[in-house]
Amino acid sequence: MNKRADTRALGLPEIAEARITFVVPALGAGGTEHVVNLVANHWSSIGYTVTLITLEPPGAQPYYKFHPKIAIVRLGVPPRRASKMRSGFLVFQRFLRLRTAIHRSRPDLVLSFLTRTNVLTLVATIGLSVPVIVSERNNPALQPLGPFWRCLQRCVYPRAFGLVTMTQGALDHFPARIRRRGRVIANPVDLPNGWQKRRGRNILAAVGRLTRQKGFDLLLEAFSKISKSHPKWKLVIWGEGDERRSLEALRDALGLQERVEMPGLTPRPGLWIENADVFVLSSRYEGWGNVLLEAMAAGLPVVSYECDWGPGVMITHGSDGILVPTEDVEALAKALDRVLADRELREQLGARAVASAQRYMPEQILIEWDALASSALMHSLKMRLQATDKSG
């Protein structure tokens, strides 16, 4: 099937050399970056010209592998801590570079990810005749944003052609005039090719950025309460972030130096899946929880806080996983104690988790992204035709 037939079969409009530009802060390891990788590679493979614009330094390398036809433009203005005056200058610099880069990519559609980048993209595209879709990837009610960005968000989000969230709860956070343009598209689960089960090492795995949001401090406290009851088990926390030192200090204070490992990022995506025997999500809040879904798809028994949003959508408590009240250390400890002690329970939860995760296979989720692209590209085509009629 040729490119044109491919796009017709998917319901996407025939726009000659249709161009889609993604804007994302960085292309490191993370759930957002994983989704950008999957969707961008898919659209490139069916014949669209895809450009990725990031705020990263020129020499940054992506964690995930992108299709060779995809152009990656790095603006060299990554987020950084600075004084208020310096921060204002950096925001203005990002705005100028982003507007120039978007203009040069000549897009028919712009797709932006993460709140501050969404705001910046909507401001940078003022006056450009191109639909912009913004995607919220976290809990919009709880993520720290600041009054400046919050005010800008309220002002410019109504300009967006569409808003994508991963749960209905996240979409309901926004005013009705924005919700009317919203779509809920869950994250797909995309396990690494060729991964192998290497179970049986008694590893309780947790994965995520080392930030307060991920609640690894709560997890360390919970594990300390049950570690003596399960001497053969160890906790491995995969990830990197600003709270590494404080988490290591807490681990040591709890006497868990020999029982808890924090090896940083996995050398390749999804490596943690191979070695884990149980997975735990201890987040205070989430936009979705990619790693939880990956664990379920890999047949791991999972224990998770029922935080907003994501885990309660993926897990049916007691059937394909265990849910406990958010930030309840005692409840988390009891749930982990139960799962680590019962091999038969682990096998039952893992088998059911695999079946539940089938709802989120990439083929299903990409159909929804294709439908959204179809709507936006048709709108872009209409705007072009109207502009041509006026100039004629």
TrEMBL record:
Glycosyl transferase family domain mapped to chain residues: 195-353
One Pfam family hit: Glyco_trans_4_4
GO molecular function ontology, one term from the record: glycosyltransferase activity
Residue ranges constituting the Glycosyltransferase subfamily 4-like N-terminal domain according to the UniProt record: 30-188
InterPro entries: Glyco_trans_1 (IPR001296), Glyco_trans_4-like_N (IPR028098)
Organism superkingdom: Bacteria
UniProt name for this protein: Amylovoran biosynthesis protein AmsD
Organism: Rhizobium fredii (Sinorhizobium fredii)
